[in-house]
Write a sequence for this structure.
RNA sequence: GGUCUCGUAGUAUAGCGGUUAGUACAUCGGGUUUUCAUCCCGACAAUGCGGGUUCGACUCCCGCCGAGAUCACCA
């Protein structure tokens, strides 16, 4: 089969964590089957339309590495890819329904409909518009909504994730096909578009599962085969049991990019949240995902969004890129994440800093706070020194003489390399008869005044002889 | 209220009639010459409840309970 999938967002704002999976899964599935992925913008609701939202959507997909074969920017044979530009197409299909007696113009005023609805609520019976179908229906013309004429019956179908489904006639109703403003509803537009575009698999959130019988009825009335339905379970908010939405503070996908989350990690996390291949593998490249993805292993229950695990995975990816592709590969990803002062130093120096600090990054933005002292003189904070748990038992004069001994020892190091520095530090340890915790804490704090830093010899090596000795001297004098 | 879906540790999951119920994140403890992190080792911790079917149920069936979705001229 020639697989064609699509991602069909409405341009109402940014793409957030809760809904990006309905772009990822169809992408993986299309690539796996050498099929096509279509991007279609569902902009039929003029009230919710947000200027610039389409750019945001495209931006997000590109960042995640999800390219599309047809759609905005790239074009294609089944355009236009904005629903607002396809109005005649919907009207054409709508007329077929009118001609076959399966759609009617509904002149009933909205207030009247509300009244029906209230009536049903009071009587505690389900509200079905088909029970209030108007007896006289006018010709369909602009300004009057067009409704589907339901023929209640049972439906059986298979959902690729949820399995065999069955519903009775009570779920079928006269849903609106074309709104009074002439724009189609989602319910109608997506069916027409998917048919015209040859879409074979529809992947969307489970919230559409309940509407599926109504869609089935429309496919039937239109004489269309329906595509494979793939219902994706919700991603749940960190607390409560509701699906993750903007109201729960669901961040936009690109917000994570700005924090220094790698697209590899984001993709990896989002896919594995609700899908796994049955093995114990955790880290997957995009290629592996394309290779191993399968619809039948998509989870049926909702999965809670866990930012902590995302960050853990990001750390894994940061290390993986460094270890497998080298320092430069990781460095290329760090643009914009360094503290401003770092720009006064050379790229080469920044790479050296990255090489010793990368394994403690959770997000790239950590560089901003974690590397300052490599690029500017740290602020002297003697309290930090004196109150350190290993140093507080020593007198100030003892600290001072230790620092002086350190300066003397390190000054004698002719070749300022990590190995030589480590040797010198080891000798110093023996000569001063101090524990590593005491001596090394002292030196570490004196050169960085940071809550933590990489291994001492590496830190000193990168800092360089001049800077290291100067900082030690400054502290020795100030104590 | 009708209809539909879901239910393994705090979280994400493995399991597909017989297992000491596995793994990862988180948490707690320990190790790797300081710190933070990485890495390694260890600990804690789960089959919603009740009936069946079966020699034997997390697994199959039924009921209950709990959670969610939907019932818009929004998608």
């Amino acid at each position: 089969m020639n697989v064609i999938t699509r991602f069909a967002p409405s341009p109402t704002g940014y793409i957030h964590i809760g809904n990006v999976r309905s772009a990822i899964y169809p992408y993986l599935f299309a690539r796996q089957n050498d099929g096509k992925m279509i991007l279609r913008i569902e902009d039929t609701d003029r009230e919710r339309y947000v200027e610039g939202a389409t750019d945001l959507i495209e931006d997000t997909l590109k960042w995640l590495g999800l390219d599309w074969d047809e759609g905005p920017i790239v074009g294609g044979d089944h355009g236009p890819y904005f629903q607002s530009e396809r109005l005649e197409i919907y009207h054409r299909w709508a007329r077929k329904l009118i001609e076959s007696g399966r759609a009617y113009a509904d002149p009933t005023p909205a207030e009247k409909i509300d009244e029906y609805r209230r009536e049903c609520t009071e009587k505690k019976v389900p509200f079905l518009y088909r029970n209030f179908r108007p007896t006289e229906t006018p010709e369909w013309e602009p300004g009057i909504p067009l409704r589907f004429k339901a023929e209640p019956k049972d439906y059986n179908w298979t959902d690729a994730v949820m399995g065999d489904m069955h519903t009775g006639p009570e779920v079928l109703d006269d849903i609106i096909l074309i709104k009074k403003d002439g724009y189609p509803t989602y319910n109608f537009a997506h069916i027409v578009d998917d048919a015209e575009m040859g879409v074979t698999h529809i992947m969307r959130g489970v919230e559409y599962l309940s509407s599926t019988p109504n869609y089935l009825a429309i496919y039937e009335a239109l004489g269309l085969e329906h595509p494979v339905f793939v219902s994706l379970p919700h991603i749940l908010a960190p607390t409560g049991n509701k699906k993750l939405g903007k109201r729960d503070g669901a961040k936009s996908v690109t917000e994570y990019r700005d924090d220094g989350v790698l697209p590899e990690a984001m993709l990896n996390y989002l896919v594995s949240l609700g899908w796994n291949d049955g093995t114990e593998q955790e880290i997957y490249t995009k290629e592996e995902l394309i290779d191993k993805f399968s619809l039948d292993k998509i989870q049926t229950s909702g999965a809670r969004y866990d930012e902590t695990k995302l960050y853990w995975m990001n750390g894994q990816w940061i290390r993986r890129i460094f270890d497998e592709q080298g320092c430069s590969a990781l460095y290329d990803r760090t643009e914009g994440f360094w503290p401003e002062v770092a720009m006064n130093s050379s790229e080469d120096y920044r790479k050296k800093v990255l090489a010793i600090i990368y394994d403690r990054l959770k997000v790239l933005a950590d560089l901003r706070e974690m590397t300052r002292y490599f690029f500017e003189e740290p602020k002297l904070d003697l309290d930090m020194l004196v109150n350190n748990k290993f140093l507080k038992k020593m007198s100030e004069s003892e600290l001072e003489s230790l620092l002086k001994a350190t300066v003397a020892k390190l000054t004698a190091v002719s070749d300022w390399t990590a190995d030589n520095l480590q040797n010198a530090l080891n000798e110093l340890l023996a000569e001063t008869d101090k524990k590593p915790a005491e001596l090394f804490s002292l030196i570490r704090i004196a050169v960085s005044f940071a809550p933590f830093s990489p291994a001492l010899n590496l830190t000193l090596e990168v800092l360089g002889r001049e800077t290291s000795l100067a900082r030690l001297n400054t502290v020795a004098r100030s104590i």
